[in-house]
Each structure stands twice: as C-alpha cells, then as structure tokens.
C-alpha cells in the first residue's frame, strides 16, 4: 500500500515506521523543516513507572519496540537507564511502599531503596531524601535527534519520502483511496492517509474530524550545561506521584490532603523530572497548564523551584542553565483514552491526544493503528 502521513512529530514518525516495517510505501509531510512541537520539547523518557495498569501492557510493548529500534538505529540514543523517584516526606514514602507492594510492581521493575542503595545505583545523588523508588523498566532516548535518525533509516528502504516545509492543504477521500494536495502544488495519491497533527487542533484537523475530545497542555522546561559526572538514572521527586495514574490509591489521596507542595509547585502543578542527555547536560522540568490562551512568555518562579529541588537531591549546585522553553502537547480529555483515533473518512484517519505520553508510547501506538486500519 501507499500511505501519506501528515505530521512529522513522534506520532507521525511512529506510524511511518510501522508502515515501512510492514512493507508499505510512505510519503511523509511536515510543515516545518523539522518537528518543533512536543516531540522535541520533552525529556525523551520512556516512562513505564507511572502508567496506569490499563495501559501498562501497551507501555511495555512500546518500551520493547524502542529497545529494538535502538539496536538498529544508534542515532535514537536508546538507553535502559531506569529511574529513581526520590521521596522526602513520610507521605511520599507511603506511596512508594504501596507501589512496590502492588500487583504490577514486578512488571515495572520496582524496588524501594534505602539512601545508601540509592547512592550505589546513582552516585550523583548525594543530597537529602528518605528513600528512592527504583524503576528498572524506565528508559530514555534523545528526543532532538531520534526523528532524523529514524527518517534516515526509513529512507534507506527506498520506500520512504520525507517532504519538509510542506503543509497539507486538503485531503479528499476518493472511495478507492485518498488524495492530498500540499502547499507546494503537489498532488499525493494514497491508499490511506493518516493525519497526526499534534497540538494543531484547528485548520485541516477540524476540517477532517470536527471538534475532537482533546485539549492542549502547556509545560515549561530547561537544559543545563554538562553536569561533569554521570547521572546514571533519570530522577523524579515525590510530587510526580500526584500526576501519574499508576500510583493512584489512598496513599496518593493522603499525599494530596497533606498539602506539602510549595505554593509555586501547587500553582503550576509541578513535578521534578530530570534526565541527562548524551552531551552531559540535564533536561529538567516541568509544569502543567490547562487553561488557554497560554502566555507567550515563560514564568521564572517554576525554574527557581526546579533548581532548588534538583540541587537538594543532587547535593550540589546545578551547572549553568543554557536553555529554557515552553511546549504544548495534545491530551485526550477522556482519562481512559490513551489516544484519540477518528476515522474521518473511508481512507482517512486522524490520530492525536496521547498527552505527555507521545515519546513513551509512540512506537506501540503506531503499531496499534497499523493493526486497526489493516496495514
């Protein structure tokens, strides 16, 4: 079959990867020179630890696919580093203890570590904490270099063409297939069209599928200079328990009632996530904002909070911050929906809304869609 995939972010690229893997031909359109949305404005984490029980199987499958991809495409920077969530209060410790006793603990690779065990796993963590929840299943990829590496690998098949700086203007279902017209005046005929618009919910997306049950979420993050030592796992703080359904339960309810978050963390719905890039710098975040219109500028208070928490856990000053940014991702409003898929016409699909799970779940969602549409 011949597919046209619109959208060069992680979802569009994952769908292209699934189609190429099954022997099909793909023409891939991206309106920018490179994807500039949530795909590159994330941590690159393949985050198994916090996923709900209902999506754990899909998450583990995606993690397996990322490892397979990483073995074939070195440029994606896959590494099975795991993570440690560092807890600093008794209420957070109770959540970690419940997680290690839960029915999915073995699948996630959960182990509760004493401070000296944390230090043995990750010698850079010389700060203050009560314990660490280790998740051996978590992993990381290099979000800024993964997609170009995947595209180069697919292009070598002879069945993949990428058109950068190309916006799809119209999609017409012909019954036997579909036709896409782009802003370069080109006509792309296909058996199937898959539109992966990311957080672009208007324009062509609305023309094809109407108003979708999705919302946009804004976050703030930052990047430091090289740390000068290895941060051997990703790290999180106990506030992250509040935002991941995999930890839901009475212990998290108690944590919410405790109101132990700082005023800044509560206002911006913050958690600490931190991962070391291959160049040695740290990617640190993040915040959550749900009410539009979003500000065009970034707020400095969350960065102060993130710096303070990270330095407390590391027991040292952070390297100089060299980049700050905001990003917006698409999230399905149904908390039980992993992604929103709409069959806009006989041969046209729209796929969006994985929330902050796009990098984690991308390969599995591409595979899942391929199964659903009969590739």
UniProtKB/TrEMBL annotation:
- Describe the location of the FAD dependent oxidoreductase domain by residue ranges: 3-371
InterPro entries reported in the protein's UniProt record: FAD-dep_OxRdtase, FAD-dependent_OxRdtase_HpnW, FAD/NAD-bd_sf
Instruction: Quote any Pfam family the record assigns.
Output: DAO
A GO CC term attached to the entry: cytoplasm
Q: Which domain of life is it from?
A: Bacteria
Q: What is this protein called?
A: FAD dependent oxidoreductase TIGR03364
């Amino acid at each position: 079959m011949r597919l046209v995939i619109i959208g060069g972010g992680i979802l569009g690229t994952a769908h292209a990867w699934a189609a190429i893997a099954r022997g099909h031909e793909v023409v891939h359109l991206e309106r920018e020179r490179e994807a500039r949305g949530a795909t590159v404005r994330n941590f690159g984490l393949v985050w198994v630890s916090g996923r709900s029980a209902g999506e754990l199987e899909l998450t583990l499958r995606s993690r397996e696919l990322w490892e397979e991809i990483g073995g074939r495409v070195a440029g994606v920077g896959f590494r099975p580093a795991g993570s440690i969530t560092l807890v600093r209060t008794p209420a957070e410790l109770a959540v970690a203890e419940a997680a290690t006793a839960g029915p999915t603990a073995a699948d996630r690779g959960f182990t509760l570590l004493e401070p000296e065990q944390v230090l043995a796993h990750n010698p850079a963590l010389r700060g203050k904490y009560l314990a660490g929840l280790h998740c051996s299943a978590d992993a990381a990829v290099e979000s800024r270099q993964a997609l170009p590496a995947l595209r180069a690998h697919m292009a070598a098949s002879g069945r993949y063409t990428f058109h950068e700086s190309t916006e799809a203007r119209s999609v017409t279902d012909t019954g036997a297939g579909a036709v896409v017209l782009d802003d370069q005046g080109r006509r792309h005929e296909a058996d199937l069209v898959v539109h992966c618009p990311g957080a672009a919910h208007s324009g062509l997306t609305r023309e094809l599928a109407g108003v979708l049950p999705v919302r946009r979420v804004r976050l703030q993050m930052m990047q430091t200079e090289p740390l000068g030592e290895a941060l051997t796992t990703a790290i999180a703080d106990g506030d992250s328990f509040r935002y991941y359904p995999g930890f839901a339960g009475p212990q998290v309810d108690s944590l919410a009632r405790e109101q132990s978050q700082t005023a800044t963390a509560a206002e911006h719905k913050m958690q600490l996530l931190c991962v070391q890039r291959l160049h040695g710098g740290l990617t640190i975040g993040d915040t959550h904002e749900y009410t539009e219109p979003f500000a065009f500028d970034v707020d400095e208070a969350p960065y102060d909070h993130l710096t303070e928490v990270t330095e407390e856990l590391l027991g040292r000053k952070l390297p100089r911050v060299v980049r700050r940014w905001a990003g917006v991702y698409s999230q399905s409003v149904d908390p039980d929906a992993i992604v929103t898929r709409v069959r806009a016409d006989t041969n046209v699909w729209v796929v969006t809304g994985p929330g902050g799970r796009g990098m984690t779940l991308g390969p599995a969602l591409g595979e899942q869609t391929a199964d659903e549409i009969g590739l």
